[in-house]
């Protein structure tokens, strides 16, 4: 199966976040924990369910990525846009603040 | 325009406090997301691709300069410096923070604005003709009745959990500038044979997954009975509309499945029971609201301004703008000025906070402090002295608000699409940008003439693609962005649903496809004066199909 | 389930019977429309309080002629999204003149109580852990109403006239 990453929106401000190390939620997809099996994904989704209870995030789900070196890249256009920001406003969203 | 009295104000103030409490209960965990979601939707707050999205109501597309300044302030302080005007005359903010939305709504309430029922399965914004009050061809100002309907439909206890959303539009001219034929209820003010004013009511229009043109349910309802008639329609819909399938839950499906005769019979049967009751419109309340829409203190001016004529002659840029963006006004010496939010190569319908502030100032200086939002995602100042048009244009030009393209091919309607929206299959804004760039040349645009392109990123059709002369619908083909083209749609009084022309085009192909369609039209049209839609209706789809796909 | 009635927590005296349970000869019971239709003759003779439960797809017109038999009509809200019973409540009160108790049962949420009450519903079956006093407060959170409904609340229009 493809590698997967868990994403959600942060409850208080709606920002797109990715489940990362130490059950933290990072704004940057490159910091996401990558699931390499169905069991991995299930375990990560359990962490996500707890994060809902803990009022950190809403609407978590998994999606497919490909990894090359330190980079984690979404496969679908939707998740590419979601990780970067609106394609027609490169001055907005994560793509603008990323170094 | 309408100004709140103490009761209107109290309602929005109480609503803000109710919402503030709901957000607090969400953030404390007392409400789960499942419980909170319908509550936030009833205040227009969505969760979208990048962030929350707030849709603020602009009743029948009318704003005061004070309100526009507040919208600018909200964009600046609570968002990322811009807003998007929608196909229902509302404004959307793409980046509000949930925890700040109660304060945001409180600020809106200060200027008599809100986000009540801009989402959810109840009544949405009642929309209207953007030129209401100024158009020479109107019988009356339809906004009077929009305001009456707005109040009746706000927090209606019986109709807050309809099978699906409900959209009403009202006009008062033969020319339909509000797409009433593709609304759940479309209302046109008319006169009967005695000259009495009343309403022609249509039901069951709509776009989305299954587009329908509205059907007449009653040719004439008099003023007194407007609300009781609407209530009868809603009571039938609330009880009989489908609740098993969200794609079949709009009233258009009910009207289609029962047939207009049977549906009419059910409504008339209910109406017979409830007319001549507490819902009858009292003349003094109509008069009270009408007074808010009294014409502004127009000066007595010559019919045509010689200053205007001189400037048109002198300044080609200004002349081009007048040609497309200025419309005749019922009052001699005045004009309607369209403000294009379709700069070439930029997202359609967006305005920055600075642009909003400027438009507010210009409204104060040149148009009695009032601004209109059109369902084609532009703005308008509708009471401008012809003498003032040149200075207005200069000010707009500096702020990129004077693109001379109203009604031309680059005046495109596009939904936010996959760049912003959770529901989308494909991006619509970059397609719009590329098309407008391809046809940037103004002479070319005028040669092409009236051509309405409408782009939706998904089947929900928020970009109104079904009623575009050329409609473009984003679809998902094996995870990639593809676009289906429809031809021959129209949203005006001769409304029609566009027909799919053939297999979809990729992201890289679709703009060329549009180019091919335009070239075909130019080649085959019956002279310069036959616009695209007329040519299509005359020629049929075959030549366009052949041009796109070749003959088989 | 807890019950809100007359602005406070109330005891539920009614027992809602499943169709397979036999109807006791006395005691207040709520039965289904199906049961009423099938067992009407003997139920008419039963000398004890009777109520009827209408599902969301069972409009009250079906029992219009029998309404005087029922001290209570329970209207179902199978999910909070299903708003048919708001119309049913209004029809019961305004069309058929029903004077008995109308109770909302099912997925009844705090933010709907005000709407339900305006439509003529006078009792609400709610989750056991619902904080009753807060729920009751919610009914009055919005004091201004624009449109006439079943309740006697003065609309903004009426207030304008008397101002």
What does this structure look like?
The complex is a heterotrimer of chains A (99), B (552) and C (163). With 99 residues, chain A is α+β, with helices and mostly antiparallel strands. Chain A has 3 helices and 5 strands. A 5-stranded antiparallel beta sheet of chain A has the order 3-2-1-4-5, with helices on one face. Chain A starts with a strand and ends with a helix. With 552 residues, chain B is of the alpha+beta class. Chain B contains 18 helices and 21 strands. The longest helix of chain B is centred in the first third of the chain and has 22 residues. By secondary structure, chain C is α/β, with parallel strands linked by helices. Chain C has a single domain, classed as Aldolase class I (TIM Barrel), CATH 3.20.20.70. An 8-stranded mixed beta sheet of chain C has the order 2-1-8-7-6-5-4-3. In chain C, helix 3 links the parallel strand 7 and strand 8. Chain C is globular. Classes of the chains: A alpha+beta (99), B alpha+beta (552), C alpha/beta (163). At the B-C interface, helix 1, helix 2, helix 5, helix 6 and helix 9 of B face helix 2, helix 3 and helix 5 of C.
Question: Percent of residues of chain A in helical segments?
Answer: 25-40%
CATH classification, class level of the largest domain in chain B: Alpha Beta
- Please bin the fraction of helical residues of chain B: 25-40%
Strand order of the largest sheet of chain A: 3-2-1-4-5
Strand content of chain B: 15-25%
Q: How many domains make up the coordinates of chain B? A: 4
* CATH-defined fold name of the largest domain in chain B: Sulfite Reductase Hemoprotein, domain 1
Mean pLDDT of chain A: 95
Shape of chain B: globular
Q: Can you tell me the CATH superfamily of the largest domain in chain B? A: Sulfite Reductase Hemoprotein, domain 1
Largest interface: chains, residues each: B-C, 40 and 34 residues
Spell out the key features of this protein.
heterotrimer; A: 99 residues; alpha+beta; 5-stranded antiparallel β-sheet; 3 helices; 5 strands; B: 552 residues; Sulfite Reductase Hemoprotein, domain 2; Sulfite Reductase Hemoprotein, domain 1; 6-stranded mixed β-sheet; 18 helices; 21 strands; 37% helix; globular
């Amino acid at each position: 199966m493809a590698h997967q990453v868990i994403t959600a929106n942060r409850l208080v401000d709606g920002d797109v976040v990715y489940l990362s190390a130490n059950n933290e939620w990072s704004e940057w997809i490159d910091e996401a924990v990558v699931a390499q099996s169905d069991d991995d994904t299930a375990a990560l989704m359990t962490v996500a369910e707890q994060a809902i209870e803990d009022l950190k995030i809403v609407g978590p789900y998994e999606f497919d990525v490909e990894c090359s070196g330190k980079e984690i890249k979404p496969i679908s256009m939707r998740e590419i846009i979601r990780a970067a920001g609106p394609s027609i406003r490169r001055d907005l969203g994560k793509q603008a603040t990323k170094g | 325009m309408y100004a709140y009295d103490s009761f209107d104000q109290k309602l929005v103030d109480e609503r803000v406090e109710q919402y503030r409490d709901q957000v607090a209960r969400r953030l404390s965990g007392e409400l789960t997301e499942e419980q909170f979601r319908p509550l936030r939707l009833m205040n227009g707050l969505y969760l979208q691709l990048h962030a929350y999205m707030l849709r603020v109501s602009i009743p029948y597309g009318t704003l005061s300069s004070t309100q526009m300044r507040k919208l600018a302030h909200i964009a600046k302080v609570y968002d990322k410096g811009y807003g998007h005007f929608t196909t229902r005359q509302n404004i959307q903010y793409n980046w509000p923070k949930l925890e700040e939305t109660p304060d945001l709504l409180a600020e809106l309430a200060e200027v008599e604005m809100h986000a009540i029922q801009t989402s959810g399965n109840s009544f949405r914004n009642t929309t209207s003709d953007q030129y209401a009050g100024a158009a020479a061809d109107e019988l009356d100002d339809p906004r009077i009745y929009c305001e009456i309907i707005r109040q009746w439909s706000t927090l209606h206890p019986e109709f807050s959990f309809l099978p699906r959303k409900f959209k009403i539009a009202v006009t008062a001219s033969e020319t339909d500038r509000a797409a009433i034929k593709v609304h759940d209820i479309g209302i046109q003010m008319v006169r009967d044979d005695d000259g009495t004013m009343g309403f022609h009511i249509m039901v069951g229009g709509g776009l989305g997954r299954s587009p329908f043109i509205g059907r007449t349910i009653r040719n004439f309802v008099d003023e007194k009975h407007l609300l009781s008639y609407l209530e009868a329609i809603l009571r039938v819909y609330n009880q009989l509309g489908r609740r098993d399938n969200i794609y079949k839950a709009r009233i258009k499906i009910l009207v289609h499945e029962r047939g207009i005769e049977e549906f009419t019979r059910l409504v008339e049967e209910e109406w017979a029971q409830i007319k001549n009751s507490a819902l009858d419109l009292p003349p003094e309340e109509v008069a009270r609201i009408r007074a808010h829409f009294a014409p502004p203190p127009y000066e007595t001016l010559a019919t045509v301004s010689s200053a205007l004529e001189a400037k048109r002659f002198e300044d080609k840029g200004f002349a081009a703008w007048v040609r497309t963006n200025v419309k005749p006004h019922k009052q001699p010496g005045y004009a309607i000025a369209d403000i294009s939010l379709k700069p070439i190569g930029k997202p359609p319908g967006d305005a920055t906070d600075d642009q909003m502030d400027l438009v507010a100032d210009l409204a104060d200086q040149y148009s009695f402090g009032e601004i209109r939002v059109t369902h084609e995602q532009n703005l308008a100042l509708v009471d401008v002295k012809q003498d003032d048009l040149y200075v207005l244009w200069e000010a707009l030009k500096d702020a990129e608000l004077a693109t001379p393209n109203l009604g031309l091919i680059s005046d495109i309607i596009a939904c936010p699409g996959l760049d912003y929206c959770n529901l989308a299959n494909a991006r619509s804004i970059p397609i719009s940008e590329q098309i407008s760039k391809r046809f940037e040349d103004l002479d070319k645009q005028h040669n092409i003439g009236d051509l309405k392109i409408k782009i939706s990123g998904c089947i929900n059709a928020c970009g109104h693609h079904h009623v575009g002369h050329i409609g473009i619908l984003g679809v998902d083909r094996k995870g990639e962005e593809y676009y289906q083209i429809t031809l021959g749609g129209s949203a005006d009084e001769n409304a029609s649903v566009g027909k799919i022309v053939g297999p979809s085009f990729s992201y890289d192909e679709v703009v060329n496809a549009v180019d091919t369609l335009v070239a075909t039209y130019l080649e085959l049209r019956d002279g310069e004066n036959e616009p695209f839609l007329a040519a299509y209706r005359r020629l049929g789809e075959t030549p366009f199909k052949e041009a796109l796909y070749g003959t088989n | 389930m807890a019950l809100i009635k007359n602005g406070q927590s109330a005891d539920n005296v009614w027992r809602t019977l499943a169709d397979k349970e036999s109807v006791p000869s006395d005691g207040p019971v709520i039965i289904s429309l199906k049961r009423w239709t099938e067992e009407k003759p003997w139920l008419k003779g039963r000398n004890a309080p009777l109520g009827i439960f209408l599902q969301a797809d069972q409009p009250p017109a079906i029992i219009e002629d029998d309404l005087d038999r029922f001290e209570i009509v329970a209207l179902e809200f199978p999910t909070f999204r299903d708003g048919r019973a708001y119309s049913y409540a209004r029809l019961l009160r305004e069309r058929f003149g029903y004077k008995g108790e109308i109770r909302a049962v099912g997925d009844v949420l705090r933010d709907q109580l005000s709407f339900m009450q305006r439509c003529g519903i006078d009792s609400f079956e709610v989750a056991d852990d619902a904080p009753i006093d807060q729920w009751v407060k919610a009914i009055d959170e919005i004091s201004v109403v624009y449109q006439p409904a079943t309740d006697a609340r003065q609309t903004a229009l009426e207030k304008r006239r008397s101002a």
